[in-house]
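User: Structure please.
Assistant: Input sequence and predicted structure:
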Amino acid sequence: MLTEEEEALFDVGQEERSIKYRVLVIYDIVEDKRRNKFVKFVSGFGFRVQKSAFEGKLDKLLYRRLLEGIPLRITSEDNVRVYKLSNNGEVMSWGGVNDVSLEDVIIM
């Protein structure tokens, strides 16, 4: 059973779900254990594009959850950056890169 506050968090309008952001998360986390937990968390929002970088396409609700969850998983000695990119932005890549199209992410 969800509390009223939890239900309100999940009760978003159609507009909240229809707007999508392309998001890039890059990180430098010192401790292995903390880094592994962070990777597990951020994997729920996108896919790894480099060893310390994840990319995803998130609606407003998932974007907020990502931003709220990051500070809970790092310390002041870590560095995490989240870039919200416009949908018409161009991404160029070279090298051993998998050509992955951005799809909606569903966290269960």
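Helices lie at 4-10, 14-18, 32-43, 60-69.
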